[in-house]
Amino acid sequence: MSNASAAEFDVETTPSSSVPSTTARKAAIAATAGTAIEYYEFGVYGYMAAIIGPLFFPADNATASLLSVLAVFGSAFLMRPIGGIVLGRIGDRIGRRSVLLVTVIGMGIATAAVGMLPVASTAGVLAPVALLAVRLVQGFFSGAEVTGAAAYVAESAPRGKRGLFGSATPVGVAIGGSLAAAVCGLTTASVNSAALHDWGWRIPFLMAVPLVVIAAYMRRRIDESLAFKKVLEASEPVKAPLREVLAHHRGAMLRVFLVSFGQNAGYWVGFVFMSIYMITYLKYDKTSVFWMMSFVSMTMAALMPLWGALSDRIGRRRVLAIGFASYAVLVIPMMMLMNHHNMPLAFLAMFIVALPMPIVQSVGYPTYTEQFPTRVRYTGMAFSFNFGAILGGGVTPYLATALIGHTGNLLSPAFLLVGAAVVALVTLAGIRETADTSLA
Asked: What are the residue boundaries of the Major facilitator superfamily (MFS) profile domain, all occurrences included (predicted)?
């Protein structure tokens, strides 16, 4: 696109203008594809945790094996801020497109590598060490994926429709989780228990390869975001984006960190951990649970554009408040309903407890993008969001399992999610409404 065209459709300085619909749609589709890969990869690990735990961490106590494999799961989150800082800086200096191509390829290679690792029975202590190393690499690249995709979509969307187009990023989250559950369900239904623990568990991880090829192809075809192009035309890229964020945007960092803590707890405890909860503690059939999670996740994906568009009309804060308040109210009674050991009731409970997810996911990402100026948006979002992801996504599944093991109270995970939702609700009170503002 020429400079004149970029100026004509710039969403920052010309509020009445609009980005071409084809540009916004291509950005949304590319973001959805890449983010789906990220959450497919993290989802597969979460769904298969109870199966691969004893393979990499053999122990007499099943809970001990599960805790070990969840600790490795959490380790990937520790690398996310580092990846966000390193790759976010590149994204703020040379552009979003190149980094988003690197992240999706890097994550895919790391996930496929998990499917090729030796287990403890053949490699001894090297098996868990190798698993940890691969997960750290995966975490590094994922640290710049979802936030970069959200920034790219926001900068490519028309003013007044950032919520609608921004929902593409969490749609990728839900599709990735749904696909992970479906592949795990198909795998467990297709092979017997012995084969599943011998080689079948590798299939979902290796399936990342064709998915990455598709996502990389889509991302090679996108252009740089118009807002970022305009920033480069006006001034030199910032030399030290993290330093500028820390010096001038500490309030925005704190707000994004706290809200993303609630958002991540909602997804990883309120959705992914629920599969572990139903399979490991409530003894539901694992294949049935995987199919349930796949259906629920895909249904939630269909609702996300509706909530994103509503946030364009009535504001981000109001819609986010609905979502977090719903988490706080619904999770405890729905987990109690699951405990009746009745699959139709469990399905109903899972569907209801997942209803806040499309609200929080679809509106959270556009809100984060609106807290930082374009020149440091990638770094600011990646740094802040990923620390929230550590606390809400990396730590809470481990804590939920540990609390159940130590207290025997199966509702312990619900209290974690309620607490995180309350933190997010309090934080929303200090966030300025940004739905109808221009990106700075």
From this structure: 27-438
CATH code assigned at 353: 1.20.1250.20
pLDDT for the residue numbered 99: 92
Closest to 46 (Cα-Cα) out of 320, 397, 433:
397
Q: How many domains does the chain have?
A: 1
Domain that holds residue 84: 3-428
Cβ atoms < 10 Å from Cβ of 192: 10
> Does residue 434 lie within any of the structural domains?
no
Can you tell me the mean pLDDT for 39-50?
A: 84
User: Token pair of 31, please?
Assistant: 């973001």
DSSP state of 315: -
- 437 assigned to some structural domain: no
- On the question of pLDDT at 9 being above 70, the answer is no
Do residues 422 and 84 lie in contact, with contact meaning Cβ atoms separated by under 8 Å?
no
What is the pLDDT at residue 4? 34
**In angstroms, rounded to a whole number, what is the distance separating the alpha carbons of residues 363 and 162?**
9
Confidence of residue 183 (pLDDT cuts 50, 70, 90): very high
Least confident span in 256-260, 330-334, 387-391, 394-398: 394-398
What's the mean pLDDT when you consider all of the chain?
88
Q: Can you say whether the dihedral through the CA atoms of 73, 149, 28, 113 is positive or negative?
A: negative
In angstroms, the CA 59 to CA 73 distance is 18
Q: What is the mean pLDDT of residues 274-292?
A: 91
Candidate from 70-79, 242-251, 346-355, 416-425 with smallest mean pLDDT: 70-79
Task: Let me know: does 390 contact 78? Beta carbons within 8 Å.
Answer: yes
Strands (E), 319-374: none
Segment 154-163, tens digit of pLDDT: 888 887 899 9
Nearest to 389 by CA among 155, 162, 144: 144
Question: ∠ CA(198), CA(202), CA(206), 5° rounding?
Answer: 160
CB 141 within 8 A of CB 107: yes
Q: Is residue 322 part of a domain?
A: yes
Whether the per-residue pLDDT at 349 is higher than 60: the answer is yes
CB 14 within 8 A of CB 439: no
CA distances 103 to 63, 356, 437, Å, are 33, 28, 30
DSSP state, residue 235: S
Helix or strand (DSSP H, E) at 334: helix 316-338
Distance in angstroms (rounded) separating the CA atoms of residues 29 and 215: 10
- 436 assigned to some structural domain: no
Rounded to a whole number, what is the distance in angstroms from the first to the last CA of the chain? 21
